[in-house]
From TrEMBL:
InterPro entries xref list: Apolipo_AcylTrfase, C-N_Hydrolase, C-N_Hydrolase_sf, LNT_N
Gene that specifies this protein: lnt
Function: Catalyzes the phospholipid dependent N-acylation of the N-terminal cysteine of apolipoprotein, the last step in lipoprotein maturation.
Lineage: Bacteria, Pseudomonadati, Pseudomonadota, Gammaproteobacteria, Alteromonadales
Species assigned in the record: Pseudoalteromonas spongiae
Top EC group: transferase
Family per record: Belongs to the CN hydrolase family. Apolipoprotein N-acyltransferase subfamily.
Protein name: Apolipoprotein N-acyltransferase
Location relative to the cell: Cell membrane
Annotated CDD domains: ALP_N-acyl_transferase
Topology in membrane: Multi-pass membrane protein
First-listed, main subcellular location of the protein, grouped into a coarse class: membrane
Regions crossing the membrane: 6-37, 49-69, 75-101, 113-134, 154-177, 184-202, 482-499
Pfam families attached to this UniProt entry: CN_hydrolase (PF00795), LNT_N (PF20154)
EC id: 2.3.1.269
Pathway: Protein modification; lipoprotein biosynthesis (N-acyl transfer)
């Protein structure tokens, strides 16, 4: 019972290694605790420790999900809590399987370097499945805890997945030290220091002699009013009024669905916005809902109005023009409802406004706004590194993501969301622009590793100058392929008998 309580506490403490707390050293110690608990135990016991660790890890880490269920789901408290328990238990199955399979394959109870060579590939395989199955939920991966750590210099080379492996290595080194087994700790530390040194002295991305001035407009519209029909025009007028005195920038950006009315019904509004932006020699990107009457399909869109190319003399917007982005990775329940014939009548949670979106293509062209090539991602999509990287192009100038985190109130969810976006910027070596309805909105420079942010829960507007970058990161070109090959080789090597007993960290 004491071991299970320790596993739960270690999992709960993981939340403090993510934003907004950013106490990243907690994560390796929590992981070391899991290794410690799984020494000299059976596969079944290791699995139970992994499950309980997962309950703490996800229970505390995504507790913000309950805010949206409780406030907007229309369910009794007991039902909303039950849904959270089911979600957390499901996510906890993945670390459970990693622990169980590692002990099964290792065929020994002690933890050694051989065991680590099994555990890391299996754990990352489980993380891959967690981010893929049932549309995927890749939130709270270990690598995100290192976003603001000195080890973030490795992100352009090995990405967040590689940083997850680094977190596991650090955890095992701490565990080894606790068992007075110094050789694994020295080897791991030396390897990480050498790799970090090489990464810092061989940067793949540098500044170029060009920057972008961008204005972020954060409307701070209350969630319960955003899709109330009587509030459509007041919302649109608010964004227009906030922007009117602030056109003098290279690019203006509004949040996800900042224009709450469907696109086909606001042609005049968009036409005037298009002319105003072009008259002021700029472009504006906004989120909007597109319901296509002929096909009955509905898309969560980003569109560009104003100048497409820097030398254009007029705006280019027209309905269904190609300079748009259709969201691909839809949020379950929020944007599409599986088994909707069964679920929609059960509770308001399964029948929310705009919960029948159509999925856009996975690979889409960058937006072009005032001559800048903009790599887009809408809300939840920014957590899917392969999706974002799949739309990266050699001439992409900035990474741009929009969201509406008003669903999650004053919780740590929006801060984690911005942290994930900053990790994508580090991976690709591209400046980040992120604008949301009520925060966290801001910009991030991946070379200086410095961000600037608007105040949360306020109607706010700010102009930022971001230096653009040149060069391609290793990760932008190859993604996780090299890492997966290395992990596969480690896994295979660990299974090959060599006739010698590996020295364990603890007997």
């Amino acid at each position: 019972m004491k071991d299970k309580m320790l596993a739960l506490i270690a999992g709960i403490l993981m939340v403090f290694s993510y934003s907004p707390f950013n106490l990243w050293p907690i994560a390796p110690f929590a992981i070391a605790t899991l290794f410690y608990l799984n020494r000299n135990v059976s596969a079944k016991t290791a699995a139970s420790h992994g499950f309980i660790f997962g309950l703490g890890w996800f229970g505390a880490g995504i507790s913000w999900v309950h805010v949206s269920i409780a406030e907007f789901g229309g369910l009794p408290l007991i039902a909303s809590l039950l849904l959270m328990v089911i979600l957390v238990a499901y996510l906890s199955l993945y670390p459970t399987l990693a622990c169980w399979l590692s002990h099964k394959f290792s065929n020994k109870n002690t933890l050694s370097i051989t065991y680590l060579a099994l555990f890391i590939p299996l754990f990352i395989l489980m993380e891959y499945l967690r981010g893929t199955l049932l549309t995927g939920f890749p939130w709270l991966s270990f690598g995100y805890t290192l976003t603001d750590s000195p080890l973030n210099s490795l992100a352009p080379w090995i990405g967040e997945t590689g940083l997850t492996a680094v977190s596991l290595l650090l955890g095992f080194a701490i565990y080894a030290l606790s068992q007075r087994s110094f050789k694994p700790a020295v080897v791991i530390s030396s390897l990480l220091l050498l790799t970090l040194g090489l990464a810092n002295f061989s940067p793949s991305v540098s500044y170029r002699d060009k920057s972008i001035d961008v204005v972020l407009v954060q409307g701070n519209i209350k969630q319960e009013l955003r899709f109330a029909p009587e509030n459509f025009w007041p919302t649109m007028a608010k964004y227009q009024d906030m922007t009117r005195p602030n056109w003098q920038a290279d690019l203006i950006v509004w949040p996800e669905a900042a224009i709450p009315e469907i696109e086909v019904l606001v042609d005049d509004y968009l036409g005037n916005l298009d002319k105003a932006a072009a008259f002021n020699n700029t472009a504006l990107i906004t989120g909007i809902i597109d319901y296509q009457l002929g096909t009955k399909t509905v898309y969560n869109n980003l569109i560009v109005v104003g100048k497409k190319h820097a030398d254009d003399q007029q705006g280019h917007y027209r309905y269904l023009h190609h300079n748009r982005y259709n969201k691909h990775q839809l949020l379950p329940i929020g944007e599409f409802v599986p088994f909707e014939e069964i679920l929609r009548p059960i509770a308001p949670l399964f029948d929310l406004d705009h919960s029948s979106f159509t999925r856009g293509e996975a690979k889409q062209a960058n937006l072009i706004a005032n001559g800048y090539h903009v790599l887009p991602a809408i809300c939840y999509e920014i957590a899917f590194s392969s999706l974002v990287r799949g739309n990266y192009q050699q001439d992409s100038d900035i990474l741009f993501t929009v969201s509406n985190d008003a669903w999650f109130g004053n919780s740590h969810g929006p801060h984690q969301h911005m942290q994930i976006a900053r990790m994508r910027a580090l991976e690709l070596g591209m400046p980040l622009v992120r604008v949301t309805n009520n925060g966290v909105s801001g910009v991030y420079d991946p070379i200086a590793k410095h961000g600037q942010y608007l105040p949360q829960f306020e109607a706010a507007l700010e102009r930022f100058t971001l230096p653009l970058t040149t060069g391609k990161t290793f990760y932008s070109q190859y993604g996780d392929r090299a890492l997966y090959i290395a992990l596969l080789l480690c896994f295979i090597a660990s299974l090959i008998p060599n006739g010698k007993n590996k020295r364990a960290c603890h007997n």
